[in-house]
Structure formats: structure tokens, C-alpha cells
Write a structure and sequence with these properties.
The protein is mostly helical and 59 residues long. The protein is built from two helices and no strands.
């Protein structure tokens, strides 16, 4: 039984690294999609209008 547990822990050691790699790749993919959206003229205009309205004072 002890030998089996040792082998199990050795085999699972790389699982955490693989999970980090998958998470990192998902984050990079999401960042790429977000960057593509933000480069678009329509989205840039919407964000600019939002910032202008937030900073303007309609006293």
C-alpha cells in the first residue's frame, strides 16, 4: 500500500503544473480577444463617450 501511495504522489506531481499552464493559456486567449475588441473603432468610441460623460459635470 505504501508503495502505491508513493507512486500515486509522484504521478500527480506534474498535474498542478499542467493546471497552471492551461489557466495561463486561457488567460492569454481572453486577453487577446479583449485586445481585439478594444482596438475596434466602435468599442473605442463607446468607451470614450463613457469616460467623457463620467468626467463631465452637469451641475
Amino acid at each position: 500500500m505504501e508503495r502505491w501511495l508513493q507512486r500515486f504522489w509522484r504521478e500527480e506531481r506534474g498535474a498542478t503544473t499542467a493546471e497552471y499552464a492551461v489557466t495561463t493559456m486561457a488567460a492569454v486567449g481572453f486577453a487577446g480577444v479583449l485586445l481585439m475588441l478594444l482596438r475596434g473603432d466602435e468599442v473605442r468610441g463607446l468607451l470614450g463617450d463613457l469616460v467623457r460623460r463620467a468626467l463631465s459635470v452637469d451641475g
